[in-house]
Amino acid sequence: EVWNMMNNKYSEFLPSVQNREDLVAEVEGLSMDIDLLKTAIENEVQQDLNVAVTEFTELKKQLERDSVVLSVLKKLQEFDAAMKEFSAALLEEKYMPAAQRLEKARSSLRNVESHRGFELKIPKALRKELTVQEQNTIYQLGKEWQKLIVWKLPHSKGSSSLEAVVLSELHLHTVPPQGEDTAVPPIAAVLQALAVLGELHYKLKDFGQLLMEYILKPLISYPSLEPVTEEQPDVFILRFRSQELALDEFSPVKVFDKIKLIFEVLHKYLLNVPLEQPGKGGKEGRVTLAELLGELIWEELSNCLIHSCLVHSVPSSSSQLEQYKEVIESTKEFEKALKEMQFLKQDKTALLTYACNVNFHFANKKCQDLIKAARKLMTSEIHNTVKITPDSSAALPELPSPGSGDHPKTHGPSSLLDNGTVNLGSESSLSQSTLSLPTCRISSSVQQLVELAYSTMEEAKTSTKFCCLQLCNCVGDIFHVFCEVVPKYHRENLQKLPQLAAIHYNNCMYIAHHLLTLGHQFRYLTSSVLSDCGGTFVDAVPDFKRLGMECFLAQMQVQKRGVLDRLWSARNFSNMDDDENYHAANKSIKQVLHQLKGLGTVWQDVLPVHVYCKAMGTLLNTALAEIVTRITALEDISAEGADRLYSLCKIVVDEGPQVFTPLLEEDKNKKYQEEVPVYVQRWMTFKELMIILRANLQEIVDRWADGKGPLAEQFSAAEVKSLIRALFQNTERRAAALAKIK
User: Fold this and answer.
1) Where do runs of H (alpha helix) occur along 462-490?
2) 374 lies in some domain
3) Same structural domain, 640 and 555
4) SS3 440
5) Exposure pattern of 458-478 as b/e (b: 16+ CB <10 Å)?
6) 95, 271, 511, 634: which could join 290 in a potential S-S bond, CB 3.0 to 4.6 Å?
């Protein structure tokens, strides 16, 4: 059974093996065929394919070259046709078609030159020919332009003078012909041809410059100049005439009318020509000659109108602002007319903007004028003075009672500087001298400066808020400028001349006095701006007081040094029994008194009395203190020396009070000469020293009175002992006296 089973399996397996062997043999045959086919493709078909691709590439390149050549030939044909048409049109003076054909030829040639790889000599020759024809056309158009627009100008170089302008004329041969005769080409054709060739801009630029220089600017600069127009059958003439004016004033209304007339005639005979802009089509490409000219000259013209006309019409006072509405309306009408003539674009409003900002310009002009006037006053001579008395110096003007809501009446500068009793609305009132300056002299320029400040503040009351703020700030600026300018400009005189230093001191105190109340006087005004100015003015008060004090104290130091320098030559008042020493001391004292008397004279009727007396008292006190110090320092004083020292001191006591002459009236000065001890601190000390120089020991002891007498009030025990030792010989009596001085 096993054997049978194996035979069955074998008999089944054998056919499948045979089938597989057959398939293997068939596959091997197919593989050989594939290899043969591959070899044939690589050796024969691939070679043929490479040849075909190469041929196709060459044919493609040849086709491209032929296409380019065909295109170039076509453009050359177009160029030739355009040039022929151009020549024909130019002969017939049809400038517009000629210019268009020339542009067509230029476009064709540009297309030919854009192709790379062709070394053609033809384009270079054609370019040369095109340039020649273009320049020839431009030249002919230029001649036509010169026929249409003829300037007859003076030969002199001073073209801007009135005499030269009167001789200038503009002739426009653009008057439309009445018949059918059109010998002169229409202006539109010439202008359009120039536009196509790109030359119109240069022609218009030259025309605009001549128009500005010989017509527009002179009309703005010379109010007496009037334009005169004349129309003849074939030409329009514009010339000028000069009229004598009573006042050489710049009236913007008249200037606008003249300029508008010029543009109206130019618009009628020249500028109202529609042009096609090259490269643009439709409505966007159409512009008028007026628009092109406006773009070229409007900026310069508007600046000239502003700076040579409108700026001079800005009011110099707020009362004239209302009248300026006429100028604003005229400016509006002027711009509107130019826009209707298309000379000006709708968005251009430079003139109207400037005119409408009249408040701004008025404030700036007013402030500039104020600063200029103030600076002139500050740099004028200080010694030209006016006298200020309590009856004439400034006090508060009439003010409403607090909370009443009333406003004070408008006062002029003079009334604001008047004095009067100030009613505070209570039972009592302040006296006449309250808030008044003492009698003194100030520079007339400073009085005018303060009046200028008051008048400016008065004007600010009725101004707009902006003007009010500017004017208020300007007043503050004036006083700040004073602090900067006056000390520097007058520095040398203020240092050398004591009278000017005193006047400058008074000036500063006078201004400080007004600043203290200036803001308060205007605090009830309706403008909230002015209500805040008071603080600004008050803040400057310490600066002015310091400015005056520094100058005057510097002069006081100079005078003190003079006093001490003269006393230095007194040889310390030692050895007065020596005639030479005595004469030197006597001379130095007289020089000091002479200095003080001279100073008292130049300060007389200038400084306020109390300041005068205090200043002179300080200087005399400096001399006395120096003399006392020198004498008390002496170690030995002879009897004769004591007598001579006494005589020297007596000169000072006798003549010292005479330096106090604050007033011109001599009899009124006696009061202040008698009050010398009040102003001279060491006066009583000096008189006690004189008593000691002539007293005996007992008298000195009696005046000491155990440290309670008049001598003890002026000298210390050490100083008295030193004087006793210097004046008296060493005896028991001197020792006893010294023992009592303690």
Assistant:
1) 465-489
2) no
3) no
4) strand
5) bbbbbbbeebbbbbbbbbbeb
6) 271
Does residue 431 fall inside a structural domain?
Answer: no
Greatest mean pLDDT range, 305-319, 386-400, 716-730: 716-730
Residue 574 lies in a domain: no
584, 566 contact by CB (below 8 A): no
Whose tokens are 């130049």? That residue is 602
pTM higher than 0.90: no
Query: What pLDDT is recorded for position 504?
Result: 96
DSSP letter, residue 282: T
Number of Cβ within a 10 Å radius of residue 602: 15
**Is the domain of 133 the same as that of 160?**
no
What pLDDT score was predicted for residue 713? 94
Give the residue among 296, 230, 227, 231 at the shortest CA–CA distance from 257: 227
pLDDT given for residue 524 in this prediction: 55
User: With 70 as the cut, is the pLDDT of residue 398 above it?
Assistant: no
Give the separation between CA 524 and CA 303, rounded to whole angstroms. Answer: 42
Backbone dihedral angles phi then psi of residue 398, each to the nearest 5 degrees: -60, 125
Nearest partner of 674 among 688, 663, 686, 660, judged by Cα: 660
Cα gap 86→131, rounded to integer Å: 13
Phi/psi class of residue 50: alpha, beta or left (left: φ > 0; alpha: ψ in -120 to 50)?
A: alpha
Question: How far apart are alpha carbons 351 and 336 in whole angstroms?
Answer: 11
Q: What span, in angstroms and rounded, lies between the C-alpha atoms of 212 and 297? A: 8
Do 539 and 643 belong to one domain?
Answer: no
Give the strand pairing for 274-276 and 236-242.
Answer: unpaired
- What is the pLDDT at residue 599? 95
Listed in sequence order, the DSSP H helices in 638-731 are 639-655, 666-674, 676-679, 683-694, 697-704, 710-714, 717-727
Share of the chain above pLDDT 90, in %: 34
Alpha-carbon span 742 to 736, nearest angstrom: 12
